[in-house]
Amino acid sequence: MTPTYYLLLSALLFAIGAVGVLVRRNAIVVFMCIELMLNSVNLTLVTFARVNGSLSGQVMAFFVMVVAAAEVVVGLAIIMSIFRTRRSASIDDTNLLKY
Amino acid sequence: MPTDLMLGPASEPSVFAASGVASSAWLLLALPAFGALVLFIGGRRTDGWGHLLGCATIVAAFVWGLVEFFHSTSLPAGQRVQNLHLFSWIPVNALQVDFGLRLDPLSLTFVLLITGVGGLIHIYSIGYMSHDRDRRRFFAYLNLFVASMLLLVLGNGFVTLYLGWEGVGLASYLLIGWYSDRPSAATAAKKAFLMNRVGDVGLALAIFILFAKLHTTQYTEVFARAHTLSPGTLTAIALLLLLGACGKSGQFPLQSWLPDAMEGPTPVSALIHAATMVTAGVYLVARSNPIYDLTSSGRLLVVIIGAITLLLGAIVGCAYDDIKKVLAYSTVSQIGYMMLAVGLGPFGYALAIVHLLSHGFFKAGLFLGAGSVMHAMDDETDMRRFGGLFKRMPITAVTFGFGYLAIIGFPFLSGFYSKDPIIEAAFQQGGWRGWVFGLAAAIAAGLTAFYMTRLVIMTFFGPARWQELKNTDGNDYHPHEAPATMTIPMIILAIGSVGIGAYLTIGNRLANWLTPSLGALQKADNGPLPSIVVTIGTLVLAAIGVLVAILVVGRRAVPVTRPEPVAWPVRAARADLYGNALNETLVARPGQWLTGALVFSDRMGVDGMVNGIAALFGGSSGRLRRLQTGFVRSYALSMLGGSILLIAALLLVRFSG
Amino acid sequence: MFTHAGLLLAAAPHPAGYVSPGETIAFWVLGPLALAGALGMLFSRNAVHSALWLVLTMLSLGMLYMAQQAPFLGFVQIIVYTGAIMMLFLFVLMMVGRDASDSVVEVLRGQRLWAGILGVGLAGLIVGIVARGLTAVTAVGLDGPNSANGGNVSQIGRSLFTDFLFPFELTSALLITAAVGAMVLAYTGRSAKGGKKTQRELVVARFRGEHARPSPLPGPGVFATGNSVATPALLPDGSIAPESLSEIIEATPVTEYGPDLAEVSDTGERVGARALTEGSHTESSYEESEEVRS
Predict the structure, then answer these.
(1) Chain B contacts to C (CB-CB under 8 A)
(2) How far is A22 from chain B (nearest CA, A)?
(3) Helices A4-23 + A27-52 axis angle, to 10
(4) Helix or strand holding residue B203 (H, E)
(5) Is B4 a residue whose pLDDT tops 70?
(6) What is the DSSP letter of C248?
(7) Which residues are registered as beta bridge partners of A90?
């Protein structure tokens, strides 16, 4: 058992999050998948902090959380306003910007 | 043979810098130009007095021309060629063109003709154009023409001449197309402009060759060094100058625009297309006499062109019923005489200028008379609808009659003194040339007598056919004498038609005056016939012409519509001896074919390639565009694919080494 | 409390690279749980279920942080992330996306196939990198920083306010911007399209004729004895007011209101205005009223 396992776990979570973004159509679920990817990155940051014996990684993970929170707030507000005008939370319905 | 006499290097007389009165010669140009400028810029505000300003500037220029003339005559003959440098016009490295005036007997003669006849016709136009709403613009164009024509004759180099040349072309174009609401006038203006371009190309090429060989375009230097050119170059220059002269003077094969130019108002026909502009070609050849003196083959071609044209004009003139067209072909024919004369070299330069001056008077008078008739007959030009106008407009008829007598060479009138010496000189060439050119000129004199007599009889004598006819508006004709502004110029010109020939030729007055410009007039007495025989023979031919006309036209009723069908010579003459058809077949058709081929190759070749490439990119982008589906997930998929490729590439580089 | 948790999961001084058996056990329990949560989120069609699955993953990750000598982050993860952010997600889901469960049919051709292939490829790549690049890693461990100067929390705080001061301040600006932005996006004032009108505006609009009628629709049973929604209102002439009929509820048949109808249309026993006080004056009062009317 070495910290490498954490990294592998993180890789799997990241890939699952990425696939989720591609296949899910509910905008909020897509957002949750992005959160999952961010969390997996946080896991690697924490792991590397431990491997290198420095707290900087943890501070960085802290920043990631803050930014993620800000992103969630704005993103959900956008989803709300889109829902208000188009009565739908599906990202496939917002496809006006095309050829 | 006299034409083969080797003429030594051109004896260019010494040229003096203008001083005294001559240094103000630029006023000659500035006055009409000022008038044109004021009328153009002033626009409608000058409607009330614009015509008066136009006349005043021309008359002032005439007065100033007289001052210059008398100043020149007060000088000794050797100092009469003066050069007035005004400013450096085109100073480009090797190309140094000065803008200046050359004051010599030749140019001053032309100045007096242009401003004198021009002034009379300006005054005539006040009456003639009084019903035209745009009379002020008409005078602006006329002033522009006079300014350009003066620049043409006064310029001291080929480039200034070219500027005036194009200026008169422009003014001619504008004035032929004056009645622009008539399609025929617009077409005639375009035709005149285009055919003049053909001639202008020749003139421009001649100037280019001069510059390439001599590195100058100023008369003084060109004439001084013309003998250094090779014979081939000289002939080429002479032929190209002749092409320019043919275009401007309506000589064969570029003659067909001149009759069509009669679409313009009659004063324009009188001034531009009879008295002045169309003689510019004669002026060009006479002015370039140091070049033509050196090339006998060039001169021979000038004579041939002149002979063809004078016959052609006289033959066609017999067939037309339109009074102005008859006069137009008469002009073509008379200018043919002048060309023939200048082609004779030192034997004819001065004769050509004499005929030019007397022709300027009597032809302008004839045109003004024709204009007066048209004015009285509601712009009708068909002579078959005239007849018996003598009683209704006696002044016009009498002045016209003097012009008529002058042109047919009635003894002791202008035409007799100016045309007869040309025929004599043609005969005196000797050999086959003397016979061919002399006979052509003499026969044409007889034809001239015929068609002019026919014109006069159909217009002024016989029954008044117009009494049974209606004009185009459906009203009766009411012929009446013209106002004084129109009759006075006609009277003055009639006096000129009577006396100018005798005044200029008795004692070789004009020839001697022109000697500093053209060299002394030479006489070759080796003709096949003595000169008295030629004179009498010409008179007899003219008398026969008059008699035939009286028998054919005067003794028989003239049908109001022209008879059809007619014998082939009349058919040919009515078709301008197929001049238009010739142009059409030889130039226009091949040009159209060439243009069509070029357009085709441009469309299929150049455009096809360009459009093909454009279509290729357009089509492929149209297909690539389909990738923009608007689905965020598709975009995310490609982003992920791209990231994976990137990571894989990094990995490959990192771990392959 | 944090120090205690840290002590609990990653025991005190050990040589570098040491991984306690407790942590190993924790990883093998929590790691699969996190994976299961992620997969559950991916595959559950209902968005609420997805959110709940994600909560599981996040809780597991928070525990793993603690096991990795990051007790502060672990608690923040559980309290802030799982507790606050995920609840925000659920709120929004309840408002907008609850009924929008994904349909089984995929509209984009090949999207799922390619997403799967690329996902596996991505996982494979990263796993490959980690496996090749980090085979023999000995972790230095955070025993030092975590035990000095007041432990993990105060060390992070010190780091934040010294080395990372500038990014930290930037973060505050970011948060304020995000808050303002969210308010701007979510705000719908009265003036905005679809905003509610005030009562006064509504009355003015009614009397201008912008509605079918100026008055409100008649309530049920105004002239009737019952006050049920099913009871239609009666007009003064005894007929039924059509506007009072509900579209979805079948109205009570009119025949059941015989007495009421009779009363309204003057055919039955009449009751005078003083019926309750003086039993015998009914007729006269009616006649009075007749007289008054005539």
Answers:
(1) 629, 631, 633-634, 637, 640-641, 643-644, 647-648, 651, 655
(2) 5
(3) 170
(4) helix B183-214
(5) no
(6) S
(7) A26
At residue B213, φ and ψ (nearest 5 deg) are -90, -40
Q: Is B623 on the interface with A (CB under 8 A)?
A: no
- Candidate from C73, C119, C167 with C-beta closest to A61: C73
Q: Do residues A18 and C122 make contact, with C-beta atoms less than 8 angstroms apart?
A: yes
* Interface-testing mutation among A16, A21, A25, A96, with chain B (most B C-beta atoms within 10 A): A21
- DSSP string for residues in B289-312: HHHHTT-HHHHHHHHHHHHHHHHH
- Is the bond preceding residue C232 a cis peptide, omega within 30 degrees? no
For residue B579, what are the contacts with CB-CB under 8 A and spacing of at least 6? B252, B253, B255, B256, B312
Provide the pLDDT for residue B27. Answer: 87
Among the partner residues C42, C175, C186, nearest to A70 by beta-carbon distance:
C175
**Chains with ≥3 CB–CB distances under 8 Å to C:** A, B
Q: Measure CA of the first residue to CA of the last residue in chain B; give whole Å.
A: 103
Tokens of residue B581, six digits:
């058809």
The tokens of C169 are what?
Answer: 């301040």
Radius of gyration of chain B (CA): 31
Which residue of C19, C28, C86, C142 is the best one to mutate when testing the A interface, meaning the one whose CB has the most A CBs within 10 A? Answer: C142
Nearest by CB to A69, which of C38, C85, C123? C85
Band of pLDDT at residue C7, cut at 50, 70 and 90:
very low
Residue of B nearest to C132 (CA): B655
Whose CA is closest to B160, among B60, B57, B208, B89?
Answer: B89
Nearest chain B residue to C106, by CA: B633
How do residues B457-495 score in pLDDT, each as one tens digit? 888 888 888 877 777 777 777 888 888 888 888 898 898
Distance CA B53, CA B627 (A): 76
Distance CA B175, CA B268 (A): 7
Residues recorded for chain B = 657
ipTM of the complex: 0.93
